[in-house]
Amino acid sequence: MGKTILITGGARSGKSRLAEAQTLAFGRPATYIATAGIFDAEMADRIRQHQDGRGPDWALVEEQTDLARALRDTDGSGPRLVDCLTLWLSNLMLGDHDIPAATQAFLAELARQRDPVVIVTNEVGAGIVPENALARAFRDEAGRLNQRVAAVVDEVHMAVCGLPLKVKPHD
Amino acid sequence: MGKTILITGGARSGKSRLAEAQTLAFGRPATYIATAGIFDAEMADRIRQHQDGRGPDWALVEEQTDLARALRDTDGSGPRLVDCLTLWLSNLMLGDHDIPAATQAFLAELARQRDPVVIVTNEVGAGIVPENALARAFRDEAGRLNQRVAAVVDEVHMAVCGLPLKVKPHD
Amino acid sequence: MGKTILITGGARSGKSRLAEAQTLAFGRPATYIATAGIFDAEMADRIRQHQDGRGPDWALVEEQTDLARALRDTDGSGPRLVDCLTLWLSNLMLGDHDIPAATQAFLAELARQRDPVVIVTNEVGAGIVPENALARAFRDEAGRLNQRVAAVVDEVHMAVCGLPLKVKPHD
User: Fold this and answer.
1) Distance linking the first and last C-alpha atoms of chain B
2) ipTM field
3) Which CATH superfamily is domain B4-128+135-168 in?
């Protein structure tokens, strides 16, 4: 069984950088499974910044909705980094996919992985209740998804100011 | 003196589920002190989902504003779960109650409890500053209330992705 | 070298109170370096509340943009408390300053301090993605700044309900 790690944190908490370091610690090259769609200029800019920061140690796989397949297709090739769960969820919601089914498929595939998987997610629930109903629904779904993934992975860390705070396992 | 525990966390961080488990660990049956008013369909739906998840181990007490009385009336009946402080505060603010007096009465009653009390609250201050002045005021009051309760309880845990992170006591 | 400590946390998480206690633990009197501009009545009110809570143990220095100079000018006078980085950043953005240059100057000066420096910052990235582009830009800049400061200080603590959670160094 490949080790599985979940890294959570707020925006710009340094979670992706921590996750990249953890992934490469399992071996090189690694595969970066990007869930981001390029929706607009701001997002495209972020992705470009992100890619410029990675070197030849990384292979890139773009998968906006079928994360189970992305895991299946890349198992056996070394460590994988999934970045990130909340963008994946957002893609599923915007595309009107069956979220429980997609989540179930992802978790089932995760349990079968022989190579390590590091997963990035976002803390989105620690602000004031959003006035927008869709934002509330997204926040709820993201929180539930985070809980389900955290329950099955080997380790959970929360990024705070770029530093990792261990949540699981307990000392 | 009954043990007192505060569980904080963002929306959908799993704090209520952790709090329910901690409450039942003190013995059964337990009393669920619900502060939620049923304001709208969304809230009613959440409460129903919540209640469906609880079984015969729980007695339900609904108290939207006088938490001191709810604690007093239920002491001697076993462990209590108060869910949650921020909805209580919201009820006090919407009903134009005397918040310092209500807080003082709650803390005084909490200090007198012989049976355990587990309290759920929300992290609402870790997002961007809200544009809405009422939301800012609520966020400030909630933060102050959380600090006052955390200062007097025996244990404080923060829920992260459904997992508890111990904040008090220090190891 | 003076010890350097970063205290982060959400709004009303008790971070300033924790930081004041940590600063005075290094000796008295201490210097409070306030970055807050008095933009409006609400802010003025907060500052007044804040100042009323401090006594003769504190000298006050107000510096809205040139934190490097404030550190340089006060080194040798005992411990300093910088409250807070996110207001400073907000002043820089509103005044259209060169943020990378100001950050670099601040970090360079911080590395030269002989007296202790305790720095307060804010977690602003754990809510839902703001709809406002300026708020998103601010959130990103604040997160990056927090990471850079956290990387160089001796200790990082996160305030949760008024209680400190140690993030750095690891046990």
Assistant:
1) 22
2) 0.89
3) P-loop containing nucleotide triphosphate hydrolases (3.40.50.300)
